[in-house]
Amino acid sequence: MSTHKQGSTPAERVGGLPNKPEQPVNDEPDFKALFHAWLESHRASFVDSVGRLVKQPIGSFFTCLVMAVALSLPMGLALLLDNVERLGGSWQRAAQISLFMELNVQASEGEALRERILEIPDVTDAEWISREQALEEFQQLSGLGEALRELPENPLPGVILVTPREVDRDNLEALRQQLAELPGVAQAQLDLLWVERLGAILKLGDRFVFGLSLLLIATLLLVIGNTIRLHIENRRTEIEVVKLVGGTDGYVRRPFLYMGALYGLGAGLIAWALLAYGLGWLNEAVTGLAGLYGSDFGLAGVPVEDGFSLVLGALLLGYIGAWLAVARHLSELAPR
Question: How far is CA 277 from CA 16, 121, 254, 283, 301, in A?
Fold first, then answer.
């Protein structure tokens, strides 16, 4: 007779009860652990970059100084152009429109017309000069006061000097035509040649600063790229060992990117200091010269927003230069 229990399965008779399936074990780290490891890797790279720069203070300082000089040149020229523009009071006054009135226009009519002109959106200021004021000024400036007093009547008309809001040739010509059609205006005169010369000078200055900026930016990238290349060569053996044990390109690249950004940060701060000191030193001579002409003009310093933009731009240039240098040499750093 069979000794097996009735109803038992073949699997139970052969090997006993089957084992329960094991639960899968998740060995992958969670997001928090990965993020902490990422932060720790960046912190270690940053500290390592700072330590290497501190160990070579003289070389690091002169590298930042060279970059700072290249940064301060275009920025300084741009600031000087702004100060030259401010020197004239405003470029709008250099493009004033002179409205010569008819001889029969009275002073009250001229004042009323001036108020009407001020309501035009393209006009920022208007000044009425009566016939008597015009004659008095002409006597003082021409040196013919005695001869002019012998004239039977005043030959000079009243004048309204209109200051436009913007210096643009087409807009100024349209405004001149509009003012010439006003009642009582005999002639509207605008020195368009001077406006064109002024615009050409400003355009030349802007283009010169832009071209110089591009040239010096390329110089900065070459300087930071060559500096990072030297750091790569000094650590070639270390990098090859890191890649041999499985270090990724991002891990190898990270310290050099921080180093380039630190070079740029230092260069931006030094450039800001150089510009502030240079403008202050130059301002002493400028104020002395302006005082001889009875003016209180002085050079404006470096605006805070421009200073921060300079530092941020230098930091980005250092980062980009380091990235380009490492990207070029990374393929050569394979373990041998």
Answer: 91, 41, 35, 10, 9
- Among 215, 203, 259, 204, smallest CA distance to 52 is for 259
CA distances from 12 to 1, 23, 124, 159 (A): 19, 23, 103, 120
Write out the two tokens for 117: 């002109």
Phi first, then psi, for residue 164 (nearest 5°) are: -75, 160
pTM of the model: 0.62
- Token pair of 171, please? 């807009």
Give which of 270, 271, 267, 251 is closest to 316, Cα–Cα. Answer: 267
Within a 10 A sphere around the Cβ of 128, how many other Cβ atoms? Answer: 20
Each residue of 196-218: pLDDT tens digit? 776 678 788 888 888 888 888 88
* The residue to which tokens 């290497």 are assigned: 52
Owner of token pair 């073949």: 10
Distance from chain centroid for Cα 28: 47
